[in-house]
Amino acid sequence: MKECWDEGGLRAYLDRELPLEEMARIAVHVGGCAECHARYNELAGRAARVAALMEALEAGPVVSQPISLPARPQRRWTMPGRRIMARPVAAAVLAVAAAAALAFVLLPKRTERPKPEVAPHVAPHVAPERRDMEQAVAPSGAGPWPALSSSPRAKGPRRVKPPNVQYYLALDDEPIDTGVVMRVALAGTAVQADVIFDAEGRPRAIRTIK
Amino acid sequence: MEIVLKVVQPAKELALSPAETETDGRAPAWFDALFREHYPRVVAMLARLTGDRGQAEEIASDAFCKLSARGSGPEEQPDERHTPWLYRVATNAGLDALRRNVRRRRHEQAAYVESLRSASAVCALERLLSEERRARVQAALAEMKPRDAQLLLLRADGLAYRELAESLGVQASSIGTLLARAEAEFELKFRARHGEGI
Predict the structure, then answer these.
(1) d(C-alpha B16, C-alpha B6), whole Å
(2) Lowest pLDDT segment from A66-75, A123-132, B86-95
(3) Does residue A10 register a pLDDT over 90?
(4) What is the spatial distance between Cα A205 and Cα A171, in angstroms, rounded to a whole number?
(5) N or C terminus: which one in chain B shows less Cβ crowding within 10 Å?
(6) Closest CB to B134 among A51, A62, A67
């Protein structure tokens, strides 16, 4: 039977870096030798402590560790058109898409408007009472768009013009706190729209430009 | 025009493949093989030692440059002494950098502590303790013999005894003894600086 093993042999035994036969011999010896068993335990404990400390070196380098700065305050826009959008490309794409969809809905109505030259032929035959009645109804249609009268008589000199207000169409139900207005154009057409983007760059409301 | 093309040909200037080992002043094949095998290990060891991967890559590159200049010529065969020489040079340079970094680290830690104030209390405490432990370990390593520090660092990187022996230029059978002594020395240095609470 081999005599007590030196610490090099025990250390290699601890790391299982010895041939199998030698590993078996050391295991038998350490099991029966109190001195080697104590030395083995001492080596194992020290190796574990050193390994734990060496692991601290890979916890995160001091120099190359990114220093986390405080979160940047969220940008808010209170002066329309004075700031650059946070995500201009995505916002512009969304705005153009929304403008295109809106224009697709609205453009046919505008083309169905009565031609101005039709008015002189019909207007003389309208009774005065009928004209008054239409004038009384007209303000109720003074919404975001001018009233699209089916009768060319509204083109007369007494026609009530709707207020020159173009309302925005909200794209969702959330209230708009602050935002920036960006005018966009549908590529290849003359359709333009104003889009309100909120502080996060999301389009919140839109209106077409007449 | 033909001459100019030959001069600026990048495939010849930058190639590290063994197939292109013409005697144009480029690195020989043995250097390429050694670089491919040991550069990641050297960088990992130095990054663990210095805590700065960029600096580790710089030191490793310098060591390889010195090794390249040390070779007598492109026809030279690989030398068994090259690997331990490379690790020894890299470890010494890393330890020197570690000692030089003390002043710079003070400023960086001041900025780091400032950044911790913005983090949550638990997270900040953990990071602070982690950095303190890292600094203590580095200080203890800086006081050790370069070979012992190198042995601990490479062992912590998971190298086997055979690889450790190759990097140190010793017999694999002596690694156990060297490792046990290095660990004992490290523990001694660490306790001498920071008390029994290892």
Answers:
(1) 17
(2) A66-75
(3) yes
(4) 5
(5) N
(6) A62
The pairing of strands A180-185 and A169-170 is unpaired
Residues of B in contact with A15 (CB under 8 A): 161, 176, 179
Q: How far apart are CA B130 and CA B142, in angstroms?
A: 18
Interface test with chain A among B187, B188, B191, B193, by most A beta carbons within 10 Å: B187
Confidence of residue B81 (pLDDT cuts 50, 70, 90): confident
**Measuring CA to CA, which residue among B143, B52, B141 is closest to residue B104?**
B52
- Give the separation between CA A127 and CA A132, rounded to whole angstroms: 9
Interface A–B counts its CB contacts (< 8 A) at 114
This complex has an ipTM of 0.70
CA neighbor of A107 nearest in space, from A36, A209, A194, A202: A209
Any idea where the domains of chain A sit in the sequence?
7-58, 76-111+166-210
> Using a CB-CB distance cutoff of 8 angstroms, which residues of chain A are in contact with residue B183?
43, 46-47, 50
Dig out the tokens for B134 from the structure. Answer: 């890292």
For chain B, give every domain's residue range: 27-194
- CA–CA gap between residue B82 and residue B78 (Å, rounded): 8
Q: Which two tokens stand for residue A102?
A: 């809106």
Residue in A124, A109, A111, A123 with CA at minimum distance from that of residue A153 = A123
Please, which residues have CB within 8 angstroms of residue B58's CB and are 6 or more apart in sequence? none
Tell me the mean pLDDT in the region B135-142.
Answer: 88
Query: What is the C-alpha end-to-end distance of chain A, expressed in Å?
Result: 104
| From A153-157, A191-195, B89-93, B133-137, the region with the lowest mean pLDDT | A153-157
Closest chain B CA to residue A70: B118
Which one, of A81, A96, A77, A75, lies nearest residue A181 by Cα?
Answer: A81
